[in-house]
């Protein structure tokens, strides 16, 4: 079988008309002789609505029950998508993550896929059916449902592409591809024809919401090409491919990302001695709290340090509670700064071309935007600024790096 894997995000299936339009793509591929597997997200804002409902009933709902609740959004999506395909005369079956053979570990709300047993999917494909799979979810060893973290439908689609030995995964979204910056903020943002896995992974880690970072890691590991396309426009989107096949113009800076969904957590006045940073980070690691941009700085008082890090806003309460335990032992203090944004430039060769960092700092200084934290690598330079300056910083840097439409 020649298998096509398609993934449709929530905005692509947010109402009956959009579901019918997305179903037309799947049906057209099936009529061309392809075996079609479709991964569907929850329609529209349903996941956020379900989360809001949960928090109206309980300030700290149990993670297992959260997964039970929010996984139903994808089940609504797959059932409606299957009905739309059937109404167009094509035999279709919808499957939950568990029914599709997606096995996950027991970490609720951010589970990892352990393996996929594709037997049922392959059997249904051999019958000529379109198989519609609920993204974002899998089955734990205890036979519970576990969700795969924000953007987990991308991970479902890429993992299924690997398990089914397909070569390409098509990601249909509400934008036409990957841009040099968020086109909703930067009017002159330019769509890229292609971008490397490495650069796209950095963009995802920097806050670009086109694809989940974990899905890109799986795609790169298994050699799966990803085509990011618009669900509403027929034109080609952006190919995410290995570096040696990269079709991107040879620019030093490929794209910018703005992340307004992280907070800065600081633990101040910690003793300046070996092992303290390990103790602090171990507290976070024990609870699977993701961190980024870890900075240690020495204040004016001798013998103590400050440690600051960035973490997703959703993890901020857990991070603050975990660090508070360490702070009590170390006689330190924990501060949380919510009104911050992370602005990042992504590309290649930054380590050997200091002008990239210099231009970022000069541009922000010119616009009187103060920098709170800086992290740099060969592929990415990130700065933390005040939240109120985030969008202005993005527009200014996009112009400074000459990333606009040619």
Fold and architecture overview:
With 406 residues, the chain is α/β, with parallel strands linked by helices. The protein has a domain at 3-252: 3-Layer(aba) Sandwich (Carbamate kinase). 34% of the residues lie in helices and 27% in strands. The protein is built from eleven helices and 20 strands. The protein has helices at residues 16-31, 46-57, 63-87, 119-126, 152-163, 197-205, 213-221, 276-285, 316-330, 355-366, 390-400, and strands at 3-8, 35-40, 92-95, 102-104, 113-116, 130-134, 137-139, 145-147, 168-173, 194-196, 225-230, 238-241, 253-259, 262-271, 292-297, 304-312, 333-337, 340-347, 373-376, 380-386. The strands form five sheets. An eight-stranded mixed sheet has the order 3-6-2-1-9-11-12-10, with helices on both faces. A four-stranded antiparallel sheet has the order 13-18-20-19, with helices on both faces. A hairpin with a 6-residue loop joins β15 and β16 (304-312). α1 crosses α3 and α10 (355-366) packs across α11 (390-400). It is globular. The relative contact order is 0.10.
Distance between the termini: 42 Å
What is the 3D form?
globular
What is the number of helices?
Answer: 11
- The percent of residues in helical segments reads 25-40%
Average pLDDT rating: 91
State the CATH topology of the domain at 3-252. Carbamate kinase
Low-confidence stretches: 246-251
Instruction: Work out the radius of gyration.
Output: 22 Å
The level-1 CATH class of the domain at 3-252: Alpha Beta
Content-based structural category? alpha/beta
Strand content: 25-35%
Give the strand order of the largest sheet, numbering strands 1, 2, ... along the chain.
3-6-2-1-9-11-12-10
- The total beta strand count reads 20
CATH superfamily grouping of the domain at 3-252: Acetylglutamate kinase-like
Largest sheet: 8 strands, mixed
State the CATH architecture of the domain at 3-252. Answer: 3-Layer(aba) Sandwich
């Amino acid at each position: 079988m020649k298998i096509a894997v398609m993934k449709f995000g929530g905005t692509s299936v947010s109402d009956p008309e959009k579901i019918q339009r997305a179903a037309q793509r799947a049906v057209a591929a099936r009529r061309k002789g392809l075996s079609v597997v479709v991964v569907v997200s929850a329609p529209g804002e349903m996941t956020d609505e379900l989360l809001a409902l949960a928090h109206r009933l309980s300030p700290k709902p149990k993670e297992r029950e959260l997964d039970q609740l929010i996984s139903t959004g994808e089940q609504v999506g797959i059932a409606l998508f299957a009905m739309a395909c059937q109404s167009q005369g094509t035999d279709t079956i919808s499957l939950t993550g568990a029914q599709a053979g997606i096995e996950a570990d027991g970490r609720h709300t951010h589970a990892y896929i352990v393996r996929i047993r594709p037997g049922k999917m392959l059997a249904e494909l051999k019958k000529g059916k379109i198989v519609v799979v609920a993204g974002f979810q899998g089955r734990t060893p205890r036979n519970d449902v576990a969700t795969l973290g924000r953007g987990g439908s991308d991970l479902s689609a890429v993992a299924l592409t690997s398990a089914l030995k397909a070569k390409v995964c098509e990601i249909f979204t509400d934008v036409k591809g990957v841009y040099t910056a968020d086109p909703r903020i930067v009017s002159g943002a330019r769509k890229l024809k292609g971008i490397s896995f490495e650069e796209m992974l950095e963009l995802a880690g920097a806050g670009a919401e086109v694809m989940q970072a974990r899905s890109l890691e799986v795609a790169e590991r298994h050699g799966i090409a990803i085509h990011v396309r618009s669900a509403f426009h027929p034109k080609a989107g952006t190919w995410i491919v290995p570096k040696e096949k990269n079709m991107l113009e040879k620019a030093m800076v490929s794209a910018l990302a703005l992340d307004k969904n992280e907070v800065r957590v600081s633990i101040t006045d910690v003793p300046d001695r070996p092992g303290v940073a390990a103790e602090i980070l171990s507290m976070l690691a024990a609870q699977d709290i993701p961190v980024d941009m870890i900075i240690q700085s020495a204040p004016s008082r001798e013998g103590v340090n400050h440690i600051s890090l960035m973490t997703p806003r959703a993890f901020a309460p857990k991070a603050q509670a975990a660090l508070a335990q360490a702070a009590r032992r170390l006689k330190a203090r924990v501060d949380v700064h919510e009104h911050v944004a992370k602005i990042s430039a992504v590309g290649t060769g930054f380590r050997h071309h200091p002008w990239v960092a210099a231009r970022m700092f000069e541009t922000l200084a010119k616009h009187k935007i103060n920098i709170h934290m800086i992290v740099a690598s060969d592929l990415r330079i990130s700065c933390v600024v005040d939240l109120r300056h985030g969008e202005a910083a993005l527009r200014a840097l996009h112009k400074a790096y000459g990333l606009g439409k040619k």
